[in-house]
Amino acid sequence: MKRALLAAVLLAALTACGGTDSGTSPSTSPESTTTTTPPPTTTTTTTTTTPPPPPPPPTEPVVPVQPPAPKPPPVQPPPVEPPPPAEPPPAEPADAYYKNCDAARAAGAAPLHRGEPGYRAGLDRDGDGTACET
After folding, report:
1. Which residues contact 127 (CB under 8 A, 6 or more apart)?
2. Where is the composition biased (Low complexity) (predicted)?
C-alpha cells in the first residue's frame, strides 16, 4: 500500500506539472522535458512627427525708398490792386456858405458832414455831426 500511495502521489505531481497524461502509469523511459515559450510580444510604437515649418517666403531685394521731392511753394498771384477810388463829388468851394438847409439841398450838398465845406453847427440840429439830414 505504501507503494501504491507513493505511485499515486508521484502520478499526481507529474500530472500537475504536465509530465504525463492522466490515466497512464509512469514509464521507465527517460523523461522528456517540454519547454513552453510564451507567444512573442509585439510592441507597436506610433511616432507622430510634426511636419517641418514652411520655408520663409523668398526675400526680395530691398530697394531704398527715396523721400518724395519737396513740393514747390504755391504760386501766389500778384496782389490785386484795388480799383482807384471813384471820383469824389465835386467839392464845394472852401468858402461855401449855406443860409439854411433848403439852400444846401438846392446846391446838391445836403447832407453836410462835419469837416466838409459849408457845414456849420447852426445847420446841425441834433449835434451829431451831420447837418441837413432830412
Report:
1. 121
2. 24-49
